[in-house]
Structures are given as structure tokens and as C-alpha cells.
Amino acid sequence: MDSEVKKKLVETFLDLEQIEINLFRSKHLIPGIPDSPRVYGGQIIGQALTAAQLTTSDNFHPHSLHCYFLSGADKNLPLVYHVDKIRDGRSFCNRFVKAVQNGVAVFTSEISFHKEEAESINHQTQMPDVPSPDELDKIVLMKK
């Protein structure tokens, strides 16, 4: 599979329709197991992260993600993602995302985003240049 096909699959996998401010609906859902009626959990996580990211500015990137699966989601019904803006600061912003299907919460997540910053002070020394594990003698040889 070439990179363009992979890119298109990921875009389809994460594609959301914005219904209104902070409210998004899934367009395509895939089963977790072939012929399963349930949605793949990784897709729910990806779509929740996408919905949250769409409510931040471009220079914020996720750095913490906590997810809770509350119930199985039906692949034949759309998921609606409600994004609550918990905090918008200069360096950090936090979002709470709830995925709902038929009026029932099936998934929640708490996501923290951090703004890109110039590298700050570094308090660790550089790793020494050492051989890789494959280049080392076996322990049996070292015992002699």
C-alpha cells in the first residue's frame, strides 16, 4: 500500500463533520473485529483527539491523553463528540471530550495540549558514545 493510500485511509478514519461550535459527528465508523457490530476503539480515540484538536490553535499539540470506554458503540450509528473547553492558557489548554450515541455516553477523554516552545534549559548530560548491545561480547565470554 503506497503512502497516498495510507494517508487517505487515515483521513477517512478520522473524518468528522462539525455540527456547531465544539460539536462534531463521525462520518465513517469501522468495526473493531471483522463483522462485529461494535466500533473499533482506536478510531473513537482518534476521532475524539481530532475533535479536541479542532478547538485549539495550530501551535498546540497533545501531550497528555486519558480515555475511558463506558459502553460499546454501534458501527451503524454516528457518534457525536461534545468538546468542553476546560482551560485555555498561554502554554496549556485542556479539553474534555464526550462521545455520545443515541443519547448515551459511550466514551470520555481528558486531553491536555501544550504550546510549542523554544527549548529550555537542559539539565542532563549527553549520552556517551557506546557500542550497541549487538556489538558487545556475550556474558559467557566475559566470565573467562
From TrEMBL:
It comes from Trichinella pseudospiralis (Parasitic roundworm). The lineage of its organism: Eukaryota, Metazoa, Ecdysozoa, Nematoda, Enoplea. Residues 38-113 form the Acyl-CoA thioesterase-like N-terminal HotDog domain. Keywords: Hydrolase. This is Acyl-coenzyme A thioesterase 8. One of its GO terms (cellular component) is peroxisomal matrix. It comes from the Eukaryota. Belongs to the C/M/P thioester hydrolase family. PANTHER family: ACYL-COA THIOESTERASE, ACYL-COA THIOESTERASE II. One of its GO terms (molecular function) is fatty acyl-CoA hydrolase activity. One of its GO terms (biological process) is fatty acid catabolic process. The keyword Transmembrane does not apply.
